[in-house]
Structures are given as structure tokens and as C-alpha cells.
Amino acid sequence: MGRWEAGWSGVSLLSAVLLGFSARAEGDGAEGEPRVSASGRLFVRALGDERRSFERELSVSSARLGLKAKLRYAEAEVSVDLASKAMVKDAFLGLQDRKKRLRLYGGQFKAPFLSRQRISAWDLPLISRGLLEDYLVDRHQLGGRRLGLMAELNPPGPASAQLAVLDGPRDELGSRQGEDLAARARLGLLRGLALGASGYFSGPLGGGGGRKFAAAVDADLERGGLSLFGEASLGRLPVGSFAAGALLAAYRLPLDSAGKWQLEPLLAGELLQLLSPSRGRGFSATAGANLLYAKRVRVQLQAERAFDPGDERPAMRLALQLGARL
Description:
Helices cover 11% and strands 56% of the residues. With 326 residues, the chain is mainly β. The protein has a 16-stranded antiparallel β-barrel.
């Protein structure tokens, strides 16, 4: 399916969802809650990479449009990104009980694996999701957006859990290599601290034979304007076993009495170690600052020094990104 055909398929699916929900919206939604809501965001990015002599690259990195429809016992979401080759991002239907303690999802959504990967690009202080996202998700297909079914449990209290059966990766001929399993649990503690754990297993129900797997633990702290995040993971890929870690620290400083203007300096680092039989190392260190206005506009300036597995030497990357959302 071509890029524009995929986009029109997403629009058609979105229209069908909205028509179905509109026919039943009256009297089914919670009082005062919007039945249908629209969202959109735009990111424009300028990038310079030392490996290409800092040649200027200007691009629209994301142009996202989305619609959500809610009923008392169901919800649906469809989003497309006009700047992406895979235009349809999320397209799923969810069913839930009255108190939203048990939810069932079907469609395309983010796998419940790796905490940073699940954070919205708008809420993530970093311009890019980083070395681990590129290597594990993009290159080796551990996680990311997949077709599948997912159950989510939200019992009374600070804990939650998710379990998903997902469409597995495909080989060079396009044949599916079995199903994948992903799971995540999260526990919220006092004073803004939360702990999480997740796992991903590729092909355990089919022909893949579980040849790829990974497990991760994470912790995040939100207190006042301070945000701290850490995640460690280990597993096995076709090239061998690996261990990895990521750290992020950011602080939001109000620039006016109303708190609409905020300055957010940040520091981040990642480390990826390839173990037996292949050996290698990758790392990145990032420093930057974001200027935010009313949760609607942001200007991000960041410098990253990174060494990806396979590179000949570390290189500097400079990025400036402008963002706006509805």
C-alpha cells in the first residue's frame, strides 16, 4: 500500500469511527465530557550533523492529526502523521468497564515496552527519542507501534498493568515471523515517584522461537518543576546479548507570574553495550534548553555528542525544533 493510500485508509477508518460514535453519543458519554475531540501538532526541525560537515537539514519532522471519540464503555482513537512514510500512527478501539479498571484494546497502538518510547513526543523534553530507541525499536523491531490486542488493568490504588499480543516482525519476503508478547507494570509511590518494569518477547507463539527478548526497569520523579528519569534494560538480539541504560534530568523555570512562559534546561545520557558474541558500544550525551509557552508552543535547542554502534568515531549533532499544537 502506498503512502497516500495508507493515509486515505486512515481517514476512512476515522470517518467510520466518528459516524458510529456520533449516532450513540447522546446520553452515553459522561456528563460534561466532550464526546469527540480533535488534536494536532506540528514540528519543524533544523539539524546539523558533524558526520556530514554540519550540512543544514530542514524538515517537517511531524505533522500529526488525531481524533478521539468516547462513550461510557468504549473509546476510539485514530491519528495520522502527514510527514511520515507510515502515515497511520494509532488506530484502535477500546472497551472498558464503568469504573475503567479493566480495558481491552484492539488495533494499532504502542507496545507496552520501554517507558521513554511510550511518552508522547510533545511531553518528552528531548527532540529525539535517542540511541536506544533507534537501535532497539527501529533497527531490531523490539516494540514500537504494532497491530494487536491489549488488556489493561487499573485496580484501585497506584498500580497498573498491561499485557499485549502483537503482530510479529516480517522477513525480507514479507512473511510474518510469529506473534510478539509485551507486558508492562507501573507502581506510583508517594511524592511524585513511580517505578515500572516491562518486557518484550519476539515470536514466542509462532515460528520466531523467541529469538529476541528484552526486559527493562524504570523510575521517574516529578516534583515541582524537577523531572528525573532513568531506565535500564538487557536482552538478546540476533547479533547477541546487550545491556543499556538511559538518564534524563530537566527543570522547568517559570519566566512570568502566570507561569505560561517556562524555560527548561536539560541533561541526558545513554549507554548501549553489545555483549557476546558481538561486542561493541554506543553512547550519547545531550545538553539543551526548551522555551515553552502555555503548553501550546515550544522552541527546543539541543546539542548531542553520540557514538552509534558501527560508527568510526563520536560525532556532534546540533538540532533546533519549533513545535505547536492545538
